[in-house]
Design goal:
It contains 14 helices and nine strands. The longest helix is centred in the middle third of the chain and has 20 residues, at 139-158. It is elongated and about 110 Å long. Helix 2 runs antiparallel to helix 3 (96-114). It has helices at 47-60, 77-91, 96-114, 124-137, 139-158, 185-199, 212-223, 227-231, 280-292, 313-327, 334-349, 351-358, 363-369, 380-388, and strands spanning 10-11, 15-19, 23-31, 37-44, 238-239, 246-249, 252-254, 262-264, 274-277. The chain is of the alpha+beta class. The strands form three sheets. Strands 1, 2, 3 and 4 form a four-stranded antiparallel beta sheet that branches. A three-stranded antiparallel beta sheet has the order 5-6-9, with no helix packed on it. Strands 7-8 form a two-stranded antiparallel sheet. It folds into three domains: 10-60, no CATH class; 77-169, DNA polymerase, domain 1 (Orthogonal Bundle); 185-369, Intergrase catalytic core (hpI Integrase, Chain A), CATH 1.10.443. This is Site-specific integrase. It comes from Sinomonas terrae. Keywords: DNA integration, DNA recombination, DNA-binding.
C-alpha cells in the first residue's frame, strides 16, 4: 500500500488479503479528523463485497469530524440551512422566540432567493445585490436577512466547507432617516377618552369590555414598560399602599408557536428587571384592578383572561387598534406609549434618566429609537439677535 501522507478525512490505496472460508479482506490506511492515521479493514464474500464494506465503514468514521461532513462547496444552500438550525438547537444558547425568529426569517426572506444555489455560487456580489434589493423594500427585512445569512455562512466557514464568509465584505446597510414619534398630552387624553367611551359601552360592536384596556394603557404610561412586561405584572409585584406606590417589572409574556401563552420569569434584558415608582394615575388604575381581582394568590396576574390565564400581546394590540379605529385615531400602538414616556422624561430630566426608566443598557438606544427630537431652538437666541442687530432709533 502507498505510504503517502493522507489529507484529513481521506484513505489510501485499498489492499486485499485472503480470509478463511474463501472470503476476502479489504484494508486501507485512513487519516481521521484527529490527525492520526489508522489501518481500517472489512471482510466480504468477494473482493468487491469486502471493498464496499470497507468504504461504508470509512464513511462512518467521523471522530472529531462534525456531523455536517457531507456538506461540500457544491452542496445546496438548503442543506446548510438544515444543519445550521440543528447547530442552533445543539448550542442551546438562543431563547425559543429568537430561534423561531431566525428560522422564520431564513425561510421567508433568504431561502426563496438562495435555495437553488450551491454554497460555491454564493459570493460577495450576490449577497450584496440581494441585500440592497431587499433594503429598497424594507430596511428591517434586509437587516433580518443579513443576520441569518451571516450566521449560516459563518458556520460553513468554521466547518471548513467555505474558505471565507462573503457576508464579511458586503456593503453596510443604511437605515433611512427617521424621527421617533411620541404622543402629546392632548393626544394621550384623546386616547383615554376613546377607551373610556368604549369601556362604558357608548361605542358600538364587539364583546362587552372588561375594563382592562384602559388600566393597561395607564400602567404603560406610568412605567414605560413594554406591553409584554405590563401583562406579566403579578399581585406580588405591586405596592400601592406605601408612601411611594411602585411596580416591579420582573417578567414578560411569551407566546410560542403551537403552545399556550405563558409568563416568562424575566423581562427582555437583565437591566429590564427594575422597580418603578408610579404616578397617581397609574396607581389609581392598579387599585381598581386589585379590587376586581378574584384570585387571592400573590402570583395572580394583574391583567388576565376570565379564566386567569395570561393575555396575549397580540390580542391587546388588536383590541387597542379596534378601539382607536372606532374613534378615528390612527397610528397608536403599545410601543408608542413607551416612546411617549421616554420623550417626556428626557425633556424634563435628561436622556440618562429616560434610559434608566426604560431599562436600556445604553442611552444611545434611547436617543436613536425612543425620544422625539425637540425642534424648538432655545428662545434665548431671539434676545441675542435683537441686541446684536437692533435698528438705530
Amino acid at each position: 500500500m502507498s505510504r503517502q501522507r493522507l489529507a484529513i478525512g481521506t484513505f489510501g490505496e485499498i489492499g486485499y488479503l485472503p480470509a478463511p472460508g474463501g472470503r476476502s479482506v479489504a484494508r486501507a490506511r485512513y487519516r481521521g479528523w484527529d490527525g492520526r492515521t489508522r489501518l481500517v479493514q472489512a471482510t466480504g464474500a468477494t473482493r468487491g463485497a469486502a471493498e464496499r464494506a470497507l468504504k461504508a465503514k470509512l464513511s462512518e468514521r467521523s471522530l472529531f469530524q462534525p456531523s455536517s461532513s457531507k456538506l461540500t462547496a457544491d452542496s445546496p444552500f438548503g442543506d446548510l440551512v438544515a444543519y445550521w438550525l440543528e447547530d442552533l438547537d445543539l448550542e442551546g444558547r438562543l431563547s425559543r422566540r429568537t430561534r423561531q425568529l431566525y428560522e422564520g426569517n431564513m425561510r421567508r426572506l433568504v431561502l426563496p432567493v438562495f435555495g437553488s444555489l450551491t454554497l460555491r455560487e454564493i459570493g460577495v456580489a450576490r449577497c450584496d445585490h440581494f441585500l440592497k434589493q431587499l433594503a429598497r423594500q424594507s430596511y428591517g427585512r434586509a437587516k433580518q436577512a443579513r443576520v441569518v445569512l451571516r450566521l449560516a455562512l459563518g458556520l460553513a466557514v468554521r466547518h471548513e466547507v467555505l474558505p471565507r464568509n462573503p457576508m464579511d465584505h458586503v456593503s453596510r446597510l443604511y437605515r433611512p432617516a427617521s424621527t421617533p414619534d411620541a404622543l402629546t398630552p392632548v393626544e394621550v387624553n384623546a386616547i383615554r377618552a376613546a377607551i373610556a367611551d368604549w369601556e362604558a359601552g357608548r361605542s358600538p360592536s364587539g364583546p362587552k369590555p372588561d375594563g382592562q384596556l384602559g388600566a393597561i394603557v395607564e400602567v404603560m404610561l406610568g412605567t414605560s414598560a413594554r406591553i409584554g412586561e405590563v401583562l406579566a405584572i403579578r399581585r406580588r409585584d405591586v405596592d400601592v399602599t406605601g408612601a411611594v406606590p411602585s411596580i416591579r417589572i420582573a417578567g414578560t409574556i411569551v407566546s410560542h408557536r403551537g403552545e399556550p401563552t405563558v409568563r416568562q420569569d424575566h423581562p427582555k434584558t437583565a437591566k429590564s428587571r427594575r422597580t418603578v415608582a408610579i404616578p397617581s394615575f397609574a396607581a389609581e388604575a392598579v387599585r381598581r384592578r386589585l379590587v376586581r381581582m378574584e384570585a387571592p394568590s400573590l402570583d395572580a396576574l394583574l391583567f388576565c383572561s376570565r379564566e386567569g390565564t395570561p393575555l396575549t400581546t397580540n390580542n391587546v394590540r388588536r383590541q387597542l387598534r379596534h378601539v382607536m379605529d372606532l374613534a378615528g385615531i390612527t397610528g397608536v400602538t403599545p410601543h408608542l406609549f413607551r416612546r411617549t414616556v421616554a420623550t417626556a422624561i428626557s425633556a424634563e430630566a435628561g436622556v440618562d434618566l429616560a434610559a434608566e426608566l426604560l431599562g436600556h443598557t445604553d442611552p444611545k438606544i434611547t436617543i436613536a429609537h425612543y425620544i422625539r427630537r425637540n425642534e424648538m431652538v432655545n428662545p434665548a437666541t431671539a434676545e441675542m439677535l435683537g441686541r446684536a442687530f437692533a435698528k438705530d432709533a
